[in-house]
Specification:
The chain is of the alpha+beta class. It is built from 11 helices and 16 strands. The longest helix has 24 residues, at 3-26.
Amino acid sequence: MLERELTEAIKIVKVACKLTSKIQKELTSNEILTKTDASPVTISDLAAQYLVLNHLHSHFPEDAFIAEEDTKEETIEFLEDVLSLVNKYTEQAADIKHLSEIINLGNSKGSVNGVNKRHWVLDPIDGTKGFIRGDQFAICLSLLNEHGDVILGVIGCPNLSLSKYYSADLHGEHKFDYAYLDSQCGTDGYIFFSKPAENFVSFAPSIKFTFENGDFKNEFLKNVTASDNKINLSKLVTLEGFEKGHSSHDLQSLIKEKFSIHNALHLDSQVKYCLLALNLGNVYLRLPTSLKFKEKIWDHAAGNSLLKSLNYNHTDSLENVEVNFYKGGRYFLTKGVIASNVSKELHAQLVAYSGELISEKFR
């Protein structure tokens, strides 16, 4: 089930990993534009969105799309730079009109707003500031059914080195040789994927995927299940954003103090969900800086696929309520996110204390 969708998703995420990895190393200041919401956009954001949506639309023309970027704020000169980059990675040359049409396919408001179709959800470069710094970022693609349920997720992590985040003293024995896997990644990093109907998450070096007869192969493909992950409550690790403007680091510090969590990783993007799936981190904290802020579906849907596949926790940070990608369309939560691979009981305690802190801060 969903084998064709998964194959095409991995195929195009691999292309996007190659493109973004190359551009990250060549990024110059004149390739950066600042949107009205103050977040930086590069030509790679739009080029990656075009490549992914164009590929999926050609294979699944009845599906709808939700994606982060559009072309309304970009100049013709900027779009010409995007087009030049795109034409290096596509078999048929595009033009500005077609480029804009495909990029803007991502403007669906979601099933809840009357578009009763499956929706592909894309963040072409999740963690743009990390991308610009030369640090972690991800290409995040997921597929939702007509009811807003995530049924497939693919996360490309072009700059990820797993051995960088693994410590035998902290994490104990793992079933994977991360250093060896890292040595097979080249410059394109990893691809993680899952179908929540199954009970495992798969990952492998991006450059090792090959495609033939509508299927994919990867000699380094690894599967992780929840039973592979032995949680050590005395050595829990939080996963938090690098940018302080993205979440309440002050409240998150209070949670760590309350639950005696002494280890933290700060990094950009949904790479955090990949580390959580591998038990390289245990509690992902993204507490709101304002109750007016709305979480975007593309920042969490692909990660939700990994968590659902392992029966891990993914809730609002104020109430212990599972995330819902249907009710809000392009936006779903106003009160942040907490994800974890700890027990349901401990997760509920984390959320309860988080709720107290948030209510006190914003009362």
